[in-house]
Design goal:
By secondary structure, this protein is mostly helical. The protein has helices at residues 32-70, 78-103; strands spanning 3-5, 12-14. It has 2 helices and 2 strands; from the N terminus they run ββαα. A two-stranded antiparallel ribbon has the order 1-2. It binds zinc ion (ZN).
């Protein structure tokens, strides 16, 4: 039994598998072109998910600004409280996404 790298997820697996136990891609008819296509699709899905998440955190942040602005006259109003919470969630979420992106390079 020898070990090899799965062409799809790059994990170390046995060469006896016909299907990767990590990412469950079929290994018996892998040509490079097919592997490249699957990797490209996986990266594309991941990029799209990150874009959605970034959009969501920015939206939450904007909503927080708006709610905080409505509650400006009364700092103890629920609008101001909600605004602060949304600002914090949006800011932290966006920061986490940026840091994750930096670390994954
Ligand atoms: Zn795999």
């Amino acid at each position: 039994m020898a070990l090899m790298n799965c062409p799809f997820c790059r994990k170390r697996i046995s060469d006896r598998h016909t299907k990767c136990p990590e990412c469950s891609q079929s290994l018996d008819q892998t040509d490079d072109e097919q592997a490249e296509r699957v990797i490209y699709q996986q990266q594309w899905k991941k990029r799209r998910l990150m874009q959605y998440l970034q959009f969501a955190t920015v939206s939450i942040f904007m909503l927080g600004c708006f709610s905080y602005w409505i509650g400006l006259n009364d700092p103890n109003s629920w609008q101001a409280m909600l605004g602060k919470i949304l600002l914090a969630i949006g800011f932290v979420g966006y920061a986490v996404l940026r840091i994750r992106k930096l670390l994954s390079k």
